Amino acid sequence: MNKLILSLPIILIFIISIFLLIFLLQNKDPNVPPSALLDKKIPPVNLVDLFNDNKLINLSNLKNKEILINFFASWCAPCKVEHPLLFQIKKQNPNLYILGINHKDKKHDAINYLNQDGNPYDFVGVDKKGLIGLEFGVFGLPETFLINKSGKIIYKYLGPLTKKVITNEIQPLL
Amino acid sequence: MKYSLFYKKSLFIYFYIIVIFLITTISKASIESDIKDITSKLRCMTCQNQTIYSSDTEFSLSIKKIIRQKLKNNESEKEIMNFLINRYGEYIVLEPKFNKQNLFLWLFPFIILALSLVFFILRIRKNT
Asked: Is A101 helix (H, G, I), strand (E, B) or coil?
């Protein structure tokens, strides 16, 4: 019995090491916090069209559609990097509704940016004060969310999308 | 002593202004102190190991703005915390909640302490 108790610290360290190893093998980046909104319903927010102030959509009304929500801004350099990849996603998935949310940006800068680099979005909503971003728990740009047909957030990616992320993580969900 | 009506009215207005000024100052000071309390418990998600209170990043400034607005709307600290946790997850709170999910995290140091004590006592007994 005494021997068992004396060897307990070693056993404990061994168990902790196994837990750490499992975490490391999962290839998770500890700097990327888990999203609180995963598996939850999409926040029912209203979005005003960037190109037409009179056009408005409510996110909860976009039912029976797979939606890719991409938060971007003209001042955000990583957004410019991932921008061409959004065209690629649209080409591969013509039925996917790509919704851009222009976050804390100036209207004319955003329009110029989309005129210059092209517009891969089916709808571009304005989030001038960042309140819509707040509902989605956005804290850095770009951020991308995938919504399934029943309106649930099934995936979130923080940072610029890459070909690898699209192939390995987004495409299998579509 | 007789006071003119004008004098009485002026005095009343003077006191009224003083009271309003005091109430506004106290309530502003109280809101600022509440903001400090709440933001000191929150993690700046875009910084390295900094609280929202000690950070001036755009994220921290916008969270401070939201908290100020919510305090003005008489929302409690608990309501504000829940609002933020629902959106940003428990990661935004510096101190993890004492719940089922974090039970191991909270109890582990005590388990280690208890085991170390047992280990220590047994070693001492063995040596004596």
From this structure: strand
